[in-house]
Amino acid sequence: MAELTAEAQPLEGSEATAILERARAVVDPEMRAAVDSLPGSLRRIARYHFGWEHADGTPADGSAGKAIRPALVLTAAGALGGSRARERAVRAAVAVELVHNFTLLHDDVMDRDPTRRHRPTAWTVFGDADAILAGNALQALALRLFAEDPHPASAQAAVRLTECVIELCAGQHVDTAMELRSPTDVSLAEVLTMAEAKTGALLGCACALGALYAGADHEDVEALDAFGRQAGLAFQLIDDVIGIWGDPHRTGKPAGADLAARKKSLPVVAALTSGTPASAELAELYALPCVEGDQEAVERIALAVERAGGRDWAQVEAADRMARAMQELSRAVPEPESAGGLLALAEFVTRRSS
C-alpha cells in the first residue's frame, strides 16, 4: 500500500501534468464534500492528512497527493467511452482516492513513518487510534459514494473495489508476516506477489473502474486491470530503489528507512537471492539488530545491496513490467491516440530518478 511519491516531475505542460491537473480539479471538490460530511473529530484528522488544515485546525495549502489513481479512473473511462463516460466516473475516481488514503493512514501507523508529504504523519499528531479510525471512515465514505451513485456500473464497481481492499489487506498481512522471517527465507516470487497485491492491485482497480463506467466488456476491463497492475509493479520497483538511494529532500521521507527497519523490499530480496559474495555479506548485515540513528550501518547495507545486483535487477525488472503493461493496454485500447493518456500516466509514475 504504497504512495506514488515521484521525485522527478514531468516537464511543465506535459500530457501527464495536464491530465493530473484536470483530475485534481474535478476530484478535489467532491472529495472535500465527502470528507466534510464526517463527524467533527474524524473530519479534522482527515483534513489534516490531506493537507487542507494544520494540526490546530487552521487552513493549510499542503499537498493532497498527485491524484494518480483518480486520474487513471477518469482517463480509462475517457479512453473507452469518451468525455461523457469520463464525466460520469467522477464519483468512482473520488472513491478510489479515498481508499488510497485510507491505506496511507493505516500504513503510516504500522510502519511508524514519522512524515508524509513533508509534514508529520497523522498518527504522530493525533495518535494511533484516531489515525486508524479516520482511515476506516475514508473507506466507508468510498463505499457510500457508490451506494449513492445512480450509474448502472456502480454496484459492480463497489464489489470490485471491495475485493481490491481485501487484496490490499492480504498483501499487507503477508508483508508484515514476512518481516518476521529470516532474510534468507524469502523468495523473490513471494515478494513480487506481495508487491502486486499491495501496490499494483489498486492501480489496476482504478483502471478497471474507469472501463466499467465506460460500459466496456469483460475482456477490456480485465486488460486494463492488468495494465494498471503491471505499471504498479514497475512503480513499486522504482519506489523501492528510491527508498534506498533517494534524496530525502525530494521524497519527504528519510533515506534508508526500510533498510534500517530490515524491510525485505524488492531490491533487497533480489540481492539476497543473487548467490553472490555480496549477498552473503548482506544476509549477515540484515541479521544484525537495528540501532536507531546508525546511518553508517544503513550505508553499508545499501552498498551491499548494490554490489549484489539488487539495484540493477530492480531497474531492469521495472522496464520489463512496463513493457507488459503496454501489451495489456494495447489489447483494450489499440488506437494510440485513445491510449495516449493512460500511457502518459504510466510513464509518469515510473519515470523517476534516485
Automatic annotation (TrEMBL):
GO MF annotation list: metal ion binding; prenyltransferase activity
InterPro entries in the cross-refs: Isoprenoid_synthase_dom_sf (IPR008949), Polyprenyl_synt (IPR000092), Polyprenyl_synt_CS (IPR033749)
Classification via CDD domains: Trans_IPPS_HT (cd00685)
Biological process according to GO: isoprenoid biosynthetic process
Assigned keywords, A-Z: Magnesium, Metal-binding, Transferase
A Pfam family per the record: polyprenyl_synt
UniProt family annotation: Belongs to the FPP/GGPP synthase family.
Name recorded for this polypeptide: Polyprenyl synthetase
Origin species: Streptomyces griseoviridis
Lineage: Bacteria, Bacillati, Actinomycetota, Actinomycetes, Kitasatosporales
